[in-house]
Sequence to fold (59 residues):
Amino acid sequence: MNRAQTGVCGTCRHAKRLTTRGGGDILLCRLSETDSKFPRYPALPVLSCPGWSAPEAVS
Fold:
């Protein structure tokens, strides 16, 4: 998946990329685990999101 396909989710620290049994890629929004206003598997591309957060810096 690229940025055009994922939108802001592709660069969000809360997104986790998963591969389905059929070989497809989907994104899981980990914010959905604690806040029901965020869908577990958002319809992509997501153009804006109030929960977006920059990835953590790698030290």
The chain has a mean pLDDT of 92. The first helix runs from residue 3 to 6.
